[in-house]
Amino acid sequence: MLLESISTMEFIGTKLADFLTYTGFANVEWANIIMIAVGAFFIWLAIKKNFEPLLLIPIGLGIILGNIPFKTAGLEIGLYEDNSVLNIFYQGVRLGWYPPLVFLGIGAMTDFGALIANPKLMLIGAAAQFGIFGAYMIALAMGFEPNQAAGIAIIGGADGPTAIFLSSKLSPNLMGAIAVCAYSYMALVPVIQPSIMKLLTTKKQREIKMEPARAVSQTEKMLFPIVGLLITTFIVPSGLPLLGMLFFGNLLKESTKTTRLAKTAGNALNDIVVMLLGLTVGCSTQASEFLTLATVKIFALGAFAFIIATASGVIFVHVMNLFLPKNQQINPLIGNAGVSAVPMAARISQNEGLKADPHNYLLMHAMGPNVAGVIGSAVAAGVLLGFLS
Amino acid sequence: MRKLLSIVSFLIASSTAFAQGAHEFKINEVFVHYSCEQCDTVKCPSESYVDEYGEPASWIEIENSSYSTHDIRKCFLTIDPAVLDKNMSAPEREKHMSLISAGDPRTSLSAKQRITFFADGNTNRGTLHLNFTLPTDEPFTVYLFDGNAVDLIDSVRVEPMVAGSSYARIGDEWNVVPAEQVTPNAPNVSFKSNAVKEFKEKDPYGIAMTLMCMGVVFSCLVLLFVFFHIFGWAMNRAAKLARVRAIRAIHEKAAKMVEMAKQGTTETKGVEIETYAAVIGLALHEYFGGTHDLESGILTITQTPSTWSDKSHELREVPQVITQN
């Protein structure tokens, strides 16, 4: 009896000791602690500072989740272990099918009316894409390979799903850092953009009042996704997954016959995908992959990309104004909205406009380049993919 | 009618699906095995790529050129030109060809995947063995036929080559490649690495990429701009015409009413005819631009001194502070 209880105690002791080797405490490294702190910081930013909480909370928790240390023992729990639940969720990022679903939701939520009413604003959306290629050149100069440089440069499009889509195809090893960087800077748009906008405009220019946009008929709104899809995908078929879903979502909205589908795409489906996308992207930033010199360079390049994109949008408006009659001048404050951080960038144009003149409402004007930026960045991603794959 | 349309649509869709099947297979590389006495190549591909029995043989590589999975089972391979006779029946053709048998998972090719068949004239050795051999001293043509033994999917004419080399499709062109570049079951050229390498070499600063990409982005958005600019103009024009027609109709009706009122043939319901004229006039004024969206933003009325604003004419007196002693 005594012998039996001794052997049972031994058994329990051995198993407990074995169990302890599996715990996070036994496997923790400094890198994990740092990354968990980064995740906690993201959550703090989202909750306390209200910086893109819908994205930063899933990403922040994902970073913590992905950096919980454990012993790899074939338990199928880690993000990179085949058949684990997280690995199954991660396939949407790795194979690039979350971003088109997000674009479906964006399309279903976006009103292209402001753009159709004043189509010349599309050109601002195109000009702001210079942020991507400016960053591409800098990335090449910093020693990145062309495919890596393209993956990093797309951060300048200020479009998280596009950044994930392109980097998953061209530079999958950098995707985690690129995605976190893209979303972080999107959250920091209100911090980055206003100073550049002020720097590149005079008070008089900031006070320019734009004529109200004309009313857009439903026929035009219905036609836009079809014509947009045909033109963009005939030129850049490699952008088909993103552009196809964007315009499909918009057609669901504007057709007026599929309101239920548009609501689902824009609300429930989009929310589900954003949750899974944010969480798995966060998870993919495991310390061993993330805490490298390349990540530091990516964050620096991301900041450059945002600055160049904002500046090129504003400067391009100045150029356009040289050719426009006085009564049709464009307020350069909407130039920043050429990046596709919808609707954050447009809201910044509005806020800065109101600061210059409390009666100048630029929101709807800024929505034009803002949604053009979504199309522009998807086209840019398609072109880069076409050239480099 | 609706049913007919559905059937037609279904048929069109089905035909597309069919066309994307076996027709996606391409002959990718052909290697002719020379006996070691004939071959003096230092690095002979025959030695590095042998069949399941460890024996070298000639081989034909087929590639699934699509980005979908397709199965090559039940297709036919041959070098016999007799199969080109259009009058030959399908069963007769099959006798001249080597059938790729079903039931082997290796024949299912995923996107861009390749499969290599040994032309050793011995099909008893397995699915990947063909019933013919490739001649070393004379030209021949390899034919790949669909499962019906009638539709030719692909063919390539191969001239006698130096021992150890192969005949490979690189891009859309066929080339004789030296022994060290013979790649059974692998891509003949890695396009991916080539594109990146090419950009790295030819465009180290990214200027060409920037110019090309910005050009494409601008082209897309400029085309959209042009289309919607013209379309918006046309829509505006149509709306303007409709408005002019409506105004003309109002004008005509107003004139008619005034005329009828003057003649006393219309019922004014006790309202003077000038009132009607004023209402119509106001409506037209509003329509022609009296209404507008751009407001001054000033909500207060600018005070102008007049007798009306004189303190002495105010209805309410300023309250007097009464102090009690």
Features:
heterodimer; A: 389 residues; mainly alpha; 0% strand; B: 325 residues; alpha+beta; 2 domains; 5-stranded antiparallel β-sheet; 4-stranded antiparallel β-sheet; 6 helices; 11 strands; 15% strand
Write the layout of secondary structure elements.
The complex is a heterodimer of chains A (389) and B (325).
Chain A: H1 2-22, H2 24-27, H3 30-48, H4 53-66, H5 85-94, H6 98-109, H7 113-117, H8 122-127, H9 130-141, H10 146-153, H11 160-170, H12 175-187, H13 189-199, H14 203-206, H15 218-235, H16 240-254, H17 259-283, H18 287-290, H19 293-323, H20 344-356, H21 363-388
Helix pairs in contact in A: 3-4, 4-17, 5-17, 6-11, 6-16, 6-17, 9-10, 9-19, 10-11, 11-12, 11-21, 12-19, 13-19, 13-20, 15-16, 16-17, 16-21, 20-21
Chain B: H1 2-19, E1 25-31, H2 45-48, E2 59-64, E3 70-71, E4 76-78, H3 90-95, E5 98-99, E6 108-109, E7 114-118, E8 140-145, E9 152-158, E10 166-170, E11 173-177, H4 191-202, H5 207-262, H6 273-290
Antiparallel strand pairs in B: 1-2, 1-10, 2-7, 3-6, 4-5, 4-8, 8-9, 10-11
Helix pairs in contact in B: 5-6
| Assembly of the depicted chains | heterodimer
What's the total count of β strands of chain A?
0
Shape of chain B: elongated
Tally of domains of chain A: 1
Query: How many helices of chain A?
Result: 21
Largest interface: A-B, 51 and 36 residues
Count of separate structural domains of chain B? 2
Q: Average pLDDT across residues of chain A?
A: 90
Helix content of chain A: over 70%
The Cα radius of gyration of chain A reads: 24 Å
In percent, how helical is the residue content of chain B?
A: 25-40%
Structural shape of chain A: elongated
Task: Report the span from N to C terminus of chain A.
Answer: 71 Å
The average pLDDT of chain B is 79
Radius of gyration of CA atoms of chain B, rounded to a whole number:
43 Å
Which residues of chain A sit in consecutive blocks of at least 5 with pLDDT less than 50? Answer: none
